[in-house]
Amino acid sequence: MAIEASKTARHVLGMCIRALDYCPPMDINFGDYLRALITADFDLVDDDDWDYRIGLIEAFQKRGIYPSGVKNLSVESLLLRSDTGDDFDTKFSELMEFFKSFKEKIGYLTDRERVYRLTRIFIRGYREEDSDILDSNNDVFFRNLKGLHEQLSSFSENNEFGQIAGIILNPAEARYAGIGRSSAKKTIGKPLLEVHNLKIASRVGPSGKLVNQILVTLTQRRGVVCKEDRYGNPEVAGFFVPGHTED
User: Fold this and answer.
1) Are 23 and 36 in contact (CB under 8 A)?
2) How far apart are CA 130 and CA 144, in angstroms?
3) How far, CA to CA in Å, does 235 sit from each of 6, 77, 194?
4) What's the whole-model pTM score?
C-alpha cells in the first residue's frame, strides 16, 4: 500500500508541476490552476486509464472551486484551447518559423550562459554587445534576426494574435486601454510589451509520448481608475498610462 500511495503521489506531483507552465503569469486563481492541470496532463497523456483527471476535477468540485467561463466540469470543457485550431501555423507562419529557429539554435546547447545570452537575442534582437557570444556559423543569422518583440509588434494592424494572447498590439487601442508606447528603436510607437520568458520544454509521458513545446510569457501594464458603486464595491471607471504626464 505504501508503494502504491507513493507512486500515486509522484504522478500527481508531476501533474501539478507541469501545470505551472500553463498558468497565467499573474492573478492566478484555483479555477485557472484546475484548467492548467487538466490541459497539461491531456497534452501529455492520451488515455487517462486511471482517471487522474476525473479525480482532480471531483476534488476541486467538492471544495466549491469552479473555473469561470466553462459550461460544466468535464475534461473537454476545462481544456485551454484557442479558436484558431489548425490555422495557427498558417496565420502566423513567420512567428512559427521564428520558434523553429529558436529550437534549432538553442535546443541542443548545454552551456547555461550561452543559452541565456542567445535567448536574449531572440527576445530583443541583436546588439553589438552580443558579438562576443557569436561564432562564425551563427554570426549572419543572429545579426539579421528579428527579435520576438519586433515579431509581435508586426501584428499591430491585425490584433488576432493579441486576442489569443490576451494583450493589446494595436496602437490605436493602446492609449485608451492605458498601455504605454515603446521608445525602442525597432518598435517605437508600438504598445509596450514585456517578454518575461522564452524557453524550450520537452516532456515524456508514461507511454513514451514526447511533447516538445516553446513557452512564452507576455505581460502588459496599465493604470486602472477605480471608484465605488452605491454598495461600496470597487468598479473600473477608466484607464491611464502609468508614469505618463499630460502636456
Assistant:
1) yes
2) 13
3) 47, 29, 27
4) 0.83
**Joined grid coordinates for residue 157:** 494592424
pLDDT in tens, 57-81: 999 999 999 998 888 889 999 998 7
Q: Is 19 exposed, middle or buried (0-12, 13-18, 19+ CB in 10 A)?
A: buried
Distance in angstroms (rounded) separating the CA atoms of residues 73 and 169 = 33
Return the C-alpha cell found at 65. Answer: 472551486
Per-residue burial over 58-70, b if 16 or more Cβ lie within 10 Å, else e, is eebeeeeeebeee
* Cell digits of residue 134: 557569436
- Can you say whether residue 134 is alpha, beta or left, with left for phi > 0 and alpha for psi between -120 and 50 degrees? beta
Is the pLDDT at 247 greater than 60? The verdict is no
How is residue 108 written as a grid cell? 541542443
Are residues 142 and 118 in contact, defined by beta-carbon separation less than 8 angstroms? yes
- Gap between the Cα atoms of 58 and 244, Å rounded: 48
Question: End-to-end distance of the chain based on CA atoms, in angstroms?
Answer: 71
